[in-house]
Structures are given as structure tokens and as C-alpha cells.
Amino acid sequence: MKTSILMGTVVVAALAGSAIACENLAELRLPNTTISLAQTVLSGPFTPPNGSAINGLPAFCRVAGVIKPSSDSDIKFEVWMPTTGWNGKFRGVGNGGFAGSLQFPGMAAALSKGYATATTDTGHTGANASWALGHPEKVVDYGYRGIHEMTEKAKAIIAAFYGSGPKKSYFESCSNGGRQALMEAQRYPGDYDGIIAGAPANDFTHIVTGFLWNQQALLKDPKSFIPPAKLKAIETAVLTACDKDDGLADGLVDDPTRCAFKPASLVCKGADTENCLTKPQVAALTKIYGGPTDSKGRIVFPGFVPGGETGNGGWGAWITGATPEKSLQYFFGAEMFRNMVTGDPAWDFKTFTVDEGGKMLDDKLARVLNATDVNLEPFQARGGKLILYHGWCDAALTPLNTIKYYEGVVAKAGAKKAEEFVRLYMLPGVQHCGGGVGPNKFVDGMQLALERWVEQGSAPDSLTAANETQGKVTRTRPICPYPRVARYKGTGDVNDAASFTCTAPASKSRSAAP
Question: CA-based, 20 to 30 A from 53: which of 8, 181, 370, 506?
């Protein structure tokens, strides 16, 4: 006997308090949605479509489908639900970059811990932005609609399967996923009870302005390009100038906003070598640290901070690239401008100007892609909690942007009320969404801290994080709620979190605001 359920404002099965067998969920009817698969997956290894085998999964009900809120929408999604041992919670999984694929590893991690979970490709396939050319509704799906639609449909499916919906819902993601997280808090405050937004690309149009500014600084004049071989000299000079600013020489610049490093100190005194910069290269580095300016010299977006120039996720990947026009900043900037702004696949980044190009980005995309609204009162009023974090050595997205957003939320809500629902954690020595020489793995779990805050009212304070090298923990540190910073007590192991305490920061030399 087939089971057919129509969802209006509520799920009929949930109202009846009855659960639906997994395979019968294929007959569940949801607005603008086609369910293409509903199957029970036995415990053990599972190989998702176009993915690698995932081992050790518990048995779960797998539901897949497509959502079409517009005539040009094609939002693929999957929902995984433990058949036993459900913790009563839902965790949404976000996407990095231009999205374009289902994030099965994130789902597997959530499922293994007892959560019902969901993912989406946000309405398109592929890692570049060619899908956006001539498809404004797909840009909307990518910008904010896809994650919201996934969340609504996932909750309905969960309610139908278990006979009741999730008691609490959480979203955790980084980069574009951090932007998605803030978009949820701002546009759809009822979707999630707790949100973690890591290194959020929330001011997307200005981020792209910064990307193109950096690429022009490096590439408009070929003499300005800084080859990867010189990045070590820059990072070494930064550490020499600023490592001891926090009172401890440990290979970390604890707060780069206080770092007084001057690029001109690296100018070649004689022959050009890997240990110095030419004057055009110094000028390019100064522009990258300074941030994009308009024709009147006004900074329109914060630049990058000194430190973290080397490493797998450092400047060689994101800013300079291994060779000219091979950086990820060039890729994202050019892809967005060509496919979402001008509609010209042959558009030349060298023609970009902050005044005209920046306005074009804002006019075309800010309303759809930017998650910069600092008024989170609706989210806070329903009990929502938000944790932001960002690595100080992020070469993809300037950490100053996250500080700017957090300070805007605090200013709007008032310091006392902001303490009730938002925290920011800045991670020294950590690169984009992880990696780097700093403490990049949270020992006690940021997600657990968020859930204690949401479910028990226990607000997080300092969190312990660790750095691992070849599978061994090499150092632990307390990560303090911004603006507090970890300071060495003067005694004890400098690689042990117990030797540090969170204190108020010294006065800064640089503002996060442009």
C-alpha cells in the first residue's frame, strides 16, 4: 500500500504522531519537490554518487530529491536519518566555493554522531561559475534560496520519518558555507537554533573587489608579481618583526593588527634574490595589506594582515598563485565577474576599477549574495545562538572582514545583549577554515559548546584548540572570545593551554573597519 502525504503548512504524518517507513517516503509530496529515492542503507561502508566509499556509517534512511522553487531551479538535495539512535537533532551541511555538489563527508560526520542531516548542491553542478551565465534564478538559489529550501524540506522529511520533527537544528560551515550560515541567521532566523559561521565570505561583492585589486597589484605590471619562492622571506620578516609582540616567541603572531611590519624593509639592497623584494613587488605587497581603495583614496574593504604567507593553504594558493593568473583569488574574481556581472566570458580583469567595477558588482549581486545585515534581533529573539571564527593567517578571506561584521552586530544589538547570542573566536596561525601552524582543531568541540549554549544556556568562554603534526598534538592553546587574547602566564610549558590565560588586548594599531 502506498503512502501519500501532502504537506501544506504542516506535515500530516507528524500531526498524527506516526512515523512513515523509509521506502514509503518516496510518496511524500512536498511543495515544488520531487523525491527520486528513498531507501534504507545498512550499516557499514557506503559509496555515494560520484564519491569515495565512506566507512563505518550506522544504518540510515537515505532520501534524495530535487526542489524547483522557480522555473529555472534544479536544487538537488539529500537527507540522511539514523534508523536507530537518533539524537533528536538536525544538522544542515554547507558548501564551499561556488558549491555545485552534494557534501557527503559532512553528512557522514553528522550522521555518525546521531544527527539527521541534509546537503544540497544549491541548484547547479560544477565547481566554476559558468552555470550562472544567463540564469539569474540559479544565482538566487546559490545566493540564499537553496540552503533554505533544503532546510525546510529536510525538516518535513525528518518529521514524516520519525513522527516528529527535530527538537533542535544546527548549521555549521566555513567560507562560502560561513556566508550561507549568516544568510540563514539574517534571512531565515527560524531555520536554525544554533549556527557556526567560519571565515564567512559574507560581503561577497566587496571580497571579489578585493580579489581583483590584489590580482591587479600583482599582475597589471609583470614586474610586480611576487613568485612563491619569495613568500618565505616575507613570512620570516613578519615573524622577526612581530612574533614577540605578545611577549612570547612561539612562531605565531597572536594579533596581526598590532604588527608593525613594513614591506619596505624587504627591498633588495643589491641583486634581486629570493630573500628580498624589488620595489614593484614591495608596492604590490603594500597594496594587498592595505586593501582596495577607490579613486579618492578611500579604503572600500579591509586588506590582508601580515603572517601565514607560506603553507599549503597560504598565499601561494590563494593570492600569488604558483604562476601568474593561477591563484584562487584570480579564479573566483574572474569567474564571478564574467558569468554573474558582465556576461562576457572574455572579460579582462585588467580593465577592472574599484569605482566602476565595484559598483557593478554591488548593483548586480549584493542583494542576492551578501549576508552583511548586522541586525540579528529576530534570530536572537527566538533564542538563536551564533558563533563566528576565523584564522588570523587566512589567505583566502581577510580576517578583518569577520571582525568588522562582528563589531557591527555588537554595535547594533548593544554589548550586553550581544553577549547573550554571539561570540567570535580568532585563531592565531590558522589558515582558511583550518590548517596552518596554529591551534586549528578544537579539543572540546565548537559544536558541543554551541549546543550547551542553545540547550542549557551555558554561554561558551575560552575553547581549547590543538595543532597536530603527523598525527601528534604539538601544542594546545585557549582560544578566547574576541576581543580577549591568550597570554602566557610566564611559567609552564609554552605548548600547553594551561600555561595561558585570556586577557583584554593591548591597544590596536589597525582598525577592522575600512
Answer: 181
